[in-house]
Every structure is written in structure tokens, then in C-alpha cells.
Amino acid sequence: MYKSIKGTKDILPAESARWQFVERTLRDIFHRYNYKEIRTPIFEQTSLFARSIGELTDIVGKEMYSFTDRSEESITLRPEGTASVIRSFIQNNLDQIQPLTKVFYIGPMFRQERPQAGRLRQFHQFGAEAAGSPTAETDVEIISLAVEIYRKFGLKNFQLKINSVGDEDCRPRYKELLKKELLKVADKLSPESQKRIEQNPMRVLDSKDERDKELTAGMPLITEYLNEECSVHFERVKALLSTCNIPFVVDGKLVRGLDYYTKTAFEITSTALGSQDALAGGGRYDLLVKELGGKPTPSVGFAAGIERLMMILENNHFEFPEPAPALFLAAADDDSREWIFKRANELRSQGIAVEIDLLARSLKAQMKEADRQNAEFSVVIGKTELQNGTAQLKNLRNHSQKQILLSDLEKELQ
Ligand code: HAM
Fold first, then answer.
1. pTM for this structure?
2. pLDDT tens digits for 146-180?
3. Index of the ligand 1 atom closest to the CA of residue 304
4. Whose CA is nearest to atom 11 of ligand 1?
5. What is the number of the ligand 1 atom nearest to the C-alpha of 282?
6. Sheet strand arrangement including 354-356
7. In the chain, N or C terminus with fewer CB closer than 10 Å?
């Protein structure tokens, strides 16, 4: 028997309505902020991701699904959406249509991580990117959009953490300083952190290892070494968040797992998630468009995991709307089945969701099925009903009943 690949999951018919509801809600919120949907391919040239996300990151170093296709080209299943969006932005000259491009996406991403609760190999993200604005207002629009989504779904236990990771002017100076401090305790750090000192010292501050955390506790933070421009920007972001009543904490150790960030970086975490506690992450990336061959374009965005949102909603017993047939048309005898078959199709083309029995079952079994399908109404049709042109319309939710003309079925159900 075939099984799905480790770290992938089927979204079964019983769950798909929940996914559709979540996606509808997301689309509605994106629309309110005037972000338009962009759909990019699931796979891209490997070098696009290596160059954007960074050769030394875990994603590029060990998690990408890469393969050589029959034309000997190295292809990768997208591990995230930003690189593809920016590739498309440049390729399609989206900057020439309007000065600020605001897009959103919803779709599958692929990373070969060790699967666990809330961590899959094919997972789904929703995200938004705003390309073309350097203002702090844009950062806060992106953050407020992300926060609004969780508020809209009624989430309570989530926290917004923000940091500034500086820019190409102040970050290198800070990195040198941090490297010196880390080298003093290098032999006591975890092997993973030791490896990072040279190339990616800021990630050491982000280590989950308890001993690493103790050793780096008092080390200088980037927020204390920002240049004037980054510092002013960061202060403005914080002020705007407060103005908008969006609570946040500054976490000077927040460094994201992707290398393209400049200035603002943020994460939304939830204690309801366990060890994979990140609901969403994002930040500003002012150098990426140029790095990928476009004109310098200051940009900011975020992305979030749908499975993680879903886990919390299910734990909270969120009341998802469950689609159900409006009407179950049941056959009291075999002679009425043809009439029912025809009538069901007519009602369906009138826009009414109708279910009938395709398994030639007894009336009792049909009524059981109507309940299982959570149909709103049922009508039983037999010889008498067809002769009189009337039937009982039964409300299966409150068990009331009324006599109706068969010719009035549409009207009664509308
Ligand atoms: P990221 O932090 O790598 O950022 O991913 C964003 C979110 O995707 C995470 O917070 C998490 O909810 C979800 N996620 C990531 N990996 C997995 C996984 N293996 N299983 C389930 N969920 C996962 C980005 O992807 C950036 N592109 C965000 C961004 C957009 N920055 C600027 N614009």
C-alpha cells in the first residue's frame, strides 16, 4: 500500500471546509488592506533561493528539496514565498505599474525538516509583501495586517516580538564586536554555535541551547549599535505600533533564519504551540531586490504557517461553519426515484444544494443519511406525493414540519 511522504499530510474532505473558511477569511483581510493576490510557480531555479535566503542558512544548507531536471538545470521546490515574489516583481516590471506593489499569497512551501507537531515538510503559508516603500508606516501596516488576522480568529495567547537587525553600514561593525565576545567563550559553546561564530555570529544569540543562552546572556545587542538611520526607523516603528494599540516586546536577540533582513525583524509566537512556537515571521529587506538584479527597492513582508494557526483554532474549539446540503430529497418507493433524480438536478441548477440517495437504499437508511449529511430540510417523495403534488417539508434542525406544494420547493428553500 502506498503511503504519503513523511512530513506531508492529506487535507481530507472532512477538514477541507475548515481550510476554505480560513482562506476566505484571509483573503477578506488582505482585501481590506488592499493587497492583491500573486501566484508564482511552486518551483524555481535553485540559485534564486540560495542567493535570497543565504547560503549559510539552515534552509539553504540542509532543508531544500532540490533536484536536477532533464535539462540539467538545478530546480528547487520553494521553501518560502518572498524570493519568488521578488523574482516575479523584477521580471514583470511591477514597479512600473505603481510606485508601491502590495501582494499576498497562500500556498504550499517545502522544507526537509524533522517532522513534529506543527512542523511539516510540505506546509502552507500565507504571506504579504510590500515592495517600494522605505517608511516605517509600511512596516507597521504589514505587522498590523498579521496581528489583525490572529485577532480576527479570536486568538489570545500570542506575542509580537520585534527587533532591528541594522543595515549594511552598522551591522558589520556590530558583528565584529559580537564575534570578539563570542570567541572569548567559544570552547564552551555548543558545536552548532561554534560553527556560526565566523559566518553568522548573530544566530548564536538565537540558539535554543540552554548553556549557549547562559553564556551569551550579557552580550551586546544590535539595538545598542544601530546607526542613526536604523535607530530613527526603529523608534518610529515602535511609536506607530503603540499608536495603533498593538502590544509588542523588543527582543534584541531576535534574528530570523533568513539572511535578507535589514532594519525591522519580527515574529509572532504563541505559547499554545509548544516547541514550534512561531506563528508568523517577517521584516524589512531593503537590499534583496537589487541583490536579485532589480532596481534598489525597499521592501517589507511577512509569512505565517496555516497548519500552526489551524492547530490553535482546533484546540480552541473554534466554530467553523460546516457546509451541508439544504435539502435531502428521499424516495419512499422505487417508482419516485426518477422524478427525484430529475428534480434534484433542477433545484441544483437553481442554486440549491441538494442531496439524494444514489445507493438505492431503504427510506429509513435515507433518513439516517440526511442526518449524517446534516441537511437542513428533507422531503420524502412517494406515490401519494406525486399524485397530490404536495409533500411535507421537514426542518431537520428544529423538527418542525409543513405541507407544501411540490412546485413551490424552490420558493420554500430560498
Ligand atoms: P519563516 O519564519 O521561515 O519566514 O516562515 C514563516 C512561518 O512559516 C513560520 O513562522 C511558521 O509558522 C511557518 N513555517 C515555517 N516552516 C514550517 C514548517 N516546516 N512546518 C510548518 N510551518 C512552518 C519566511 O518564510 C519568510 N519568507 C517571511 C517573510 C516574508 N519575510 C519577509 N517577507
1. 0.95
2. 999 999 999 999 999 999 999 999 999 999 999 99
3. 7
4. 305
5. 31
6. 354-356, 327-331, 377-381, 390-395, 401-405
7. N
